[in-house]
Amino acid sequence: MTTVLDTLLTELRTVRGPIRSADLAGRVGVSESALSGMIDVLVAKGRLSPAEDPGAGESVACSGGACGSACVGLDRCAFIANVPASHTLIVDSAVALPGSVAQ
Amino acid sequence: MSGFVVDYGPDIESAIDRLVGQIERAPEVNARYAPRWLATALLDEDPGLAEPLVSLEGGAELIVTRDRLLEGLRRELGDSADTAIAAARFQTANTIARAATSESTHHSRDRTDRIDAVLTNRYLGIPIFLALMWAVFKITTDIAGAFLDWIDEAVSGPIAHFGESLVAIVGLGGTWVESLVVDGIIPGVGAVLVFVPILMALYLALAFLEDTGYMARAAFVMDRVMRGVGLQGKAFLPMLVGFGCTVPAVYATRTLEDERDRLLTSLLVPFMSCGARLPVYVLISAVFFPNYAGLVVFGMYLLGILVALTIGLVLKRTLLPVTSHAPTIMEMPPYRLPTPRTIWFHTWTRVTAFIGGAGSIIFGTMIVVWFLMSIPVGGSGGFADTEVDDSAFATVSGVVAPAFEPAGFGTWEAAGSLLTGFVAKEVVVGTMAQVYGVDDAETSGPDPSIGDSAREIGTGFVGAVVGALKATPGIIGIDLTDAEEAEEPSSLMASIRTSFEESSGGHGSAAALAFLVFVLLYTPCMAAVAAIRQETGTRWMWLSIFGQTALAWVFAVVVFQGARVIGL
Question: Which of B480, B485, B512 is nearest to B498 (CA)?
Fold first, then answer.
């Protein structure tokens, strides 16, 4: 049985570069919120790697306004780029998920 | 949902049956939990179950059985059971969703998706990103430029008068202290403060883009570009940070797991044009390219990106060969309509951060530059009473100046400004204000009263607002400015123009362009050098310093000679 998580990983492996979660959800045939839950499971299982701080989730890329100055709290950042939460496929995760069969 | 059961597949179902049988034989456990639910939760390794279960009769035995079954499942499935359980649940939920909805296979595209289809399009994404950045710099230079003259006049007029009067009141008029304040600190610091409206406009425009959610899309678009030069997607993060300041950008490379990626990104980040270079671009553009200032500034940012990408490609094929990079999922935030209050809050806090952070560096460097300019070397006059051409600063800068002759700006003034730029880019403009021998302060004649000064500042502000309003339609190509209203250049600008024209044999604009390219590409500042050393080691730090400076020199020479050939 090929599960939806297998489909997700299979689709992701065919991607060259980044893919929007909305596009991946469309390819897998699930809603974006369902995809989010699946991503959490795959992260917990070591199949996906979340971006680490300061680029993870709600965090931002930021720097101070003057040479040599880093941020002193987000409110003081001179330059902020809201960075999308991202998850990278761990290369070794080519193995099929349990409960599925190779196609 | 009575009677609904998820099918977990034969291996797990068999394990569930074994556990259900054991649960039904343990009355205490059976009375407290639904057998199938408990069996599934045990195989799912629910962390909250073990403790309450062992207190019940037969509970500890259940856990022993569970552990034995999990071992067997791991061998059978090639992975842990909880993953298979999660996969089966998602599969069931997906099957139900497909059956219950009419568009289950056609992902409905809401407004965000429709906008994203255009803004992050494979072919349109980068041109749109560049167009928006061009608009940002157009706003920055054209609209905010009107306020530049207002602050310049306020600093060189009423504020300079005030400084001079203050020194006289404390009995230090005519001493070196007056020289320090009037010739050093006020023009030096003032020359940088003049650019606060420019930075404010930049931060305002960026805050708008950030709050709408566009910057996340820009990151997505740039991610593709990063991969093109053999960097993983996450490398875009330090690059973006580099547009603010190189130092935290270098430290941000720590987010990259791969050592090669960390190293390569650290070497490329300094080519991203940091905010501190902006005043130099704006000043030089205002002198030599007043009608194309926005385009020139935008061109500098773009050139920085292109050079970084090219260097990345070269290093990818030589010193740092690429390793494979895995695909990445990016969750885009929804588009939002930003509120003016939030945008203003972001802008104001960043501007004050710039003034506070940069102020100390500029202030300190201006004093050092003034000190070196006050020491006579070989010429006549004493301390703080010597011609700038005969000062220690001019002598030291003059040693370096010939190296820049092929680039068209081989004067000690330009060389000296670039030398102080090694400390921090903010001080380049301040140094230029000092070394070009400018006495912009209108200090002759009777001192104006406080009321006159306030009136002068107020009138200037109204004029700046009118000028900004007239310049606004220019962003979409409608020119409302009066051609006869051409601004008279300040004495600093006139002095810079004269110097560049002389040093370049009448090709001042070509030399100015070369100067800007050099400022863009050479070492950002000492703090950045220290950060690169810390992150990559001494060897790569020296490669970065010499490599960048050599590259900047080569580019500057090529730009000058090329521009001269085409008649600039």
Answer: B512
